[in-house]
Specification:
Layout: H1 11-62, E1 107-109, E2 119-122, E3 138-139
Antiparallel strand pairs: 1-2, 2-3
Length: 142
Amino acid sequence: MKTKKDDAFSFAETIAVLAIMLILTAGVGFSAAGYVQKARRLSAESQIEVYRLALQSYYLDCGSYPSDEQGLAALWEKPLLYPVPAGWRGPYVDREIQKDPWGKPFIYSSRKNRNLPFTILSLGSDGLEGGSGDAEDIVSWK
């Protein structure tokens, strides 16, 4: 004959099940966090590539790249700052210039660096120059 006590879980069994569920959930959470950082990095690389191609189109129309003061915003709106490009036929991007996946602006420079006509970079998750891993800078020349 069964008693009512045999049909229920004991407190220790319930705690053991909860502990196992917590461990499994934590493992999934840590794995997901790694994928989120990887997705942010890939998104930044993709955005930089879009801006790089748009700058090439800008150059073909205007004969020069935007100045540092005009920045990437010149891809969306005709610059009002000198030198105002006469051949501007933009916008050269589908939407206003976005911030990087960490919420910071992309850095654009028209000064020759590495023998390239311009550079675009995101400072990564830490927002500081240099770094490694998730904090590594994402640059247009790599």
